Structure formats: structure tokens, C-alpha cells
User: Fold this.
Amino acid sequence: MKCEAPKQTAKELPLGDILEAGTAAEFETGSWRSERPVWHKETCIHCMFCWVSCPDTAIIVKDGKMTGINYEHCKGCGICAKECPTKQKSITMEIEKK
Ligand code: SF4
Ligand code: SF4
Assistant:
């Protein structure tokens, strides 16, 4: 079978092919998650390391303090748990129960 190259140049091809760029908020990407970050607010010092390191902007902040995790968009990458500096780890990862 002969495969034909697209006629458009790279700049003419649609961004993201199927999905348009900048539309992540419209999709519940949390459904991809196999692990879930769990926040332990009693040990959280609100340093916001998790917030600056989350690639999905899934750390919820109110008045400059962490208030939770947006599970609709968190993909469970675990970076927030890795970056949390508290000795007890104020975010830990657990296997997602589907
Ligand atoms: S990184 Fe840890 S201590 Fe810092 S705000 Fe996030 S959960 Fe709290
Ligand atoms: S697990 Fe990943 S996507 Fe989810 S809140 Fe932590 S850093 Fe963000």
C-alpha cells in the first residue's frame, strides 16, 4: 500500500491535529489517571511547590493557600508529591480505584 504525504506544509496543518491547542480545560483529562494524589492538609505548609510544578494547573489555590486538588484535570503524574518538601509528605500518591 502506498502512503501519500500530506499536501499541506507543517504550518498549514491544524494545531494538535484532532484537538485544538489551548482546549485542555474543556476535557476531563483526570479520567486518564492510574494514580491519585492525596493532600494531607494537616501537614501542609502552603509553600506552593506543588502548584508551580503541576503541569496541569490542578492544584487549587484560594487566598494564596493550597485548598485541594482538581481531580477533573489531574492526570496523576506524581510531580506534586515528589516536589512537596515536608518531611511527612503532604501529598502522597495512591492507586486510583475506578
Ligand atoms: S508542596 Fe506540599 S507543603 Fe507545599 S503547598 Fe503543596 S502540599 Fe502543601
Ligand atoms: S499528580 Fe500531577 S497533574 Fe495531578 S496535581 Fe499532582 S502534579 Fe498535578
Q: What stands out?
A: The pocket of iron/sulfur cluster (ligand 2) is lined by residues 37, 54, 56, 58-59, 69, 74-80 (CB under 6 Å). The chain has one domain: 27-95.
